[in-house]
Amino acid sequence: MKFFIDTANLAHIKEANDLGILDGVTTNPSLMAKEGIKGNEAILNHYKTICELVDGDISAEVLSVTYDEIIAEGKILAAIHPNIVVKVPMIKDGIKAIKWFTDNGIRTNCTLVFSAGQAILAAKAGATYLSPFIGRLDDTNWDGVDLIAQIANIYAIQGFETQILAASIRNPLHIVKCAEAGADVCTCPLNSILGLLKHPLTDIGLAQFIEDAKKM
Ligand code: E4P
Prior knowledge:
This protein has helices at residues 10-18, 29-34, 40-53, 67-78, 92-103, 116-125, 134-139, 144-158, 172-181, 190-195, 200-213, and strands at 2-6, 24-26, 57-61, 84-89, 108-113, 129-132, 163-166, 185-188. 39% of the residues are buried.
């Protein structure tokens, strides 16, 4: 399973990248706004900086919601760097645009996915990645990990090549459960990635080894 970091924060991206296990970055308009990135030039420059920091797929989300505008914006984003993946919302014009990008060699990440039906449509359009939002589903009393397992099963049966990118990850257990359910990628905040390190028995065991090493 690939690991992406889900942030536009450069310090967090650097810290995750330094671990040596980072395969890419996802962003969205909310994450960009949180970092105070405003205006077209600043947005494009920020994506360029992220591409220079991380050698992996970088999702850059379109802000448009109509077919022609999504295509125009996606072309500009894709031109920033070969590693850019154009992130497109799961709407009718978005699906049409994903098909156009697929036919024209531009890779895509279909975002805001909450059902297996949406996952089938995105795969039919040739999306490179599909982003089901696990945490937001859990928030509404639906099981997000169950959806990952259902989509993984459908894609395996049907031979779809779209990669399942589990998004809206809220904790380390989500990552473990998504790996178990067949996600190809997990995109996670830094805290969830670092949370995977934690176990009290590791800390107790290490403290003991350090103490005993003094007696050697
Ligand atoms: C990533 O691609 C998504 O935009 C992101 O994971 C959404 O996460 P949230 O539900 O925590 O906002």
